[in-house]
Design goal:
The structure is a single chain. This protein is mostly helical. The chain is about 60% helix and about 0% strand. Helix 1 packs antiparallel against helix 2, helix 2 packs antiparallel against helix 3 and helix 3 packs antiparallel against helix 4. The longest helix is centred in the last third of the chain and has 24 residues.
Length: about 120
């Protein structure tokens, strides 16, 4: 289970890095993105969000950004760091609230609750 104090600190670190992107090395940006990916995976798992794996999945975009960070202009590097920070922040809020996500196949009807 992710430590929320560490998560909040990491979000701040990502925002600071995005704001100072011109002075970061490629390896620093890549390392931050890789840490972000691991943190997002852990938080998703903690709240029950399954991996998507499609091009629409933010983790896929962040992984591609991490792998090709040397080809990205500073603005795109900063955007990737800020996207990671937003995801971690949002997932942290969901996790702290105790909300659990359950996913069902699209063709399966929703179960009725007794109160329905």
């Amino acid at each position: 289970m992710p430590n929320m104090n560490l998560t909040s600190g990491f979000v701040s670190e990502l925002v600071r890095a995005a704001n100072q992107i011109e002075i970061l090395s490629i390896s620093e940006v890549r390392r931050l993105l890789q840490r972000s990916i691991a943190t997002i995976r852990d938080l998703r798992q903690a709240v029950g969000i399954p991996a998507d794996g499609t091009a629409n999945d933010a983790l896929v975009r962040l992984k591609l950004a991490s792998e090709g960070v040397e080809r990205l202009v500073h603005e795109k590097q900063a955007e990737a760091l800020l996207e990671a920070a937003d995801l971690i922040r949002t997932l942290g809020i969901v996790h702290q609230s105790g909300t659990q996500v359950s996913v069902r196949p699209v063709d399966q009807p929703a179960q009725k609750h007794e109160s329905d």
